Amino acid sequence: MREPVTAAAGPGRPRDAEVGRKALRAAVELYAELGWAKFTVDAVVRRAGIGKAAVYRRWPTREKLVADALEWALVLPAIAIDTGNVDDDLRELARALMAHYLGPYGLAGLRLHVEARAYPELFGELAATLRRTRALEARAIVRRAIARGELGEHASPTLILDTLLGGVLNHVLATPEELRPEMTARSARYIEDITAFVLTAAKAIGPP
Amino acid sequence: MREPVTAAAGPGRPRDAEVGRKALRAAVELYAELGWAKFTVDAVVRRAGIGKAAVYRRWPTREKLVADALEWALVLPAIAIDTGNVDDDLRELARALMAHYLGPYGLAGLRLHVEARAYPELFGELAATLRRTRALEARAIVRRAIARGELGEHASPTLILDTLLGGVLNHVLATPEELRPEMTARSARYIEDITAFVLTAAKAIGPP
């Protein structure tokens, strides 16, 4: 496999960016697995397999590193879903969330919400930003559906999003460890089913 | 306020039981707030305001104490809901879960699922037991509804329970800290609404 162009560009910015990405990726993984209490810059350096000096130069403290890493992995990848119809929008939203939970950073967001209560000065604002970002993009989907007349004006964004997004989360949490490969294999089918389930209630309760 | 009868009974079993309960309660609270990494028997003794010797005699290690405390708070209070109709059963299930999340042990279960991946040898079995217990009692509700003809035979316990239980969880997680009192005040209304929402889909998709 060829090296990505940025990494082959020699010293300077692109190479820095590659080292930075490796550090951020390792930091989110370690945070998701072990949490804040066991999080150290040294452990991130070891897991990422990169130079210690470069990491410490950029992130002198573990607080700065974890904050940047969580923002990079959780807040920045906001997805602007807008397919033009509510069925596809909600399906895509559920699919993206399932992919997130099944991916390497799946536990990081959940842990952030849990740890925001134990360490509010460190994680409180990040958790609040994440909540706000997610809520805004999801609510926009329902608002557009109401504007297009696909859902009635009294359709409840709260109920639609709680059942869809919470449903996906509960599905992942409630699946026993040994059934995880099976759940992953069937996840596309599950996304179809839960989206149809939620849309049935949304359209019946809040008809246009 | 009068002391409870058991605490006034002098030395012997009832008084032991009271000390034990105080220790368990403090242990779950500390685990929920700070997680396993910061969990110590000494901190539990301090928070519970009880004698150190009594606690160490019963729980010589922090592993034993946290395991007993989580089982006591999360696994044992299994609720056998069986009102005779599916609407009331599901409403009561959602209500009990909301009360749990808003109570002092609300974060403990979520943290357990997160930490079961970091410390599988310690929390894996407990998380699995909790999952199994919850799934069995919730699925029994849907099975009885199918047997009584309230739901069709192809009604999906998975979708019904994921959307109802996950919906309640998402509602709690997505609510910003500053809106928590308001959410708590409105939680009875929310339970009515989400139960009706989920039942609408369940009855429309899997009619008897």
Q: What share of the residues of chain A lie within helices? A: over 70%
What would the average pLDDT of chain A be, to the nearest integer?
88
Outline type of chain A: elongated
Order of helices and strands of chain A: HHHHHHHHHHH
How many H/I helices of chain A? 11
The largest sheet of chain A is: none
Largest interface comes to:
A-B, 47 and 48 residues
Tell me what the structure shows.
- Chain A is mainly α and 208 residues long.
- Helices cover 75% and strands 0% of the residues of chain A.
- Chain A has 11 helices and no strands.
- In chain A, helix 2 crosses helix 7 and helix 7 packs across helix 8.
- The longest helix of chain A is centred in the middle third of the chain and has 28 residues.
- Chains A and B meet through helix 7, helix 8, helix 9 and helix 11 of A and helix 6, helix 7, helix 8 and helix 10 of B.
